[in-house]
């Protein structure tokens, strides 16, 4: 169901104006960012700059990295990939009905992460 187009009133002190198509358009001075930051269109992409690295980021931001001691062992990434492959089957609990067990298929493997598909999900 399509909602009707709603028109917006223009105030006399508004810096918006109608373009040729009758659409609202902001005045040029309002299109510019209000602070002195560089617009995103002028920021070079990561591909143009090369690979992104923490060292470069910390140096650019004049920041100091948090000490490794602040991170617990369970927050670190596993050092090896899991042994699952696409198409393998698992048994898992239905998240909506915890008393029901379902057959799951491995749909995607990305490092230590798995994307699982519920086979025959109701």
Automatic annotation (TrEMBL):
- List the Pfam families hit by this protein, alphabetically: MBT
Cross-referenced Gene3D superfamilies: 2.30.30.140
**Where, in residue numbers, are the MBT repeats?**
52-122
Q: Which GO terms describe its biological process?
A: negative regulation of DNA-templated transcription
List where Basic and acidic residues composition bias occurs: 10-20
Q: Which GO terms describe its molecular function?
A: chromatin binding; histone binding
On the tree of life, the source organism's domain of life is Eukaryota
Q: Give the residue ranges for region: Disordered.
A: 1-44
The answer to whether UniProt assigns keyword Repeat to this entry is yes
PROSITE patterns per UniProt: MBT
Q: Which InterPro entries match?
A: Mbt, PcG_chromatin_remod_factors
Record's keyword terms, sorted: Repeat
- Tell me a GO cellular component: nucleus
Per its UniProt record, what PANTHER family does this chain match?
LETHAL(3)MALIGNANT BRAIN TUMOR-LIKE PROTEIN 4, POLYCOMB GROUP PROTEIN
Name of this protein: L3MBTL4 isoform 5
Organism listed in the record: Pongo abelii (Sumatran orangutan)
């Amino acid at each position: 169901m399509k909602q009707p187009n709603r028109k917006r009133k223009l105030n006399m002190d508004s810096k918006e104006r109608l373009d040729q198509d009758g659409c609202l358009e902001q005045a040029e001075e309002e299109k510019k960012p209000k602070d002195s930051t560089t617009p995103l269109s002028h920021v070079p992409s990561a591909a143009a700059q090369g690979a992104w690295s923490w060292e470069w980021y910390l140096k650019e931001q004049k920041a100091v990295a948090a000490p490794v001691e602040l991170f617990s062992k369970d927050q670190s990434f596993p050092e090896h990939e899991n042994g699952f492959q696409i198409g393998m089957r698992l048994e898992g609990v239905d998240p909506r009905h915890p008393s029901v067990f379902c057959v799951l298929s491995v749909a995607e493997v990305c490092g230590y992460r798995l994307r699982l598909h519920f086979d025959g999900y109701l």
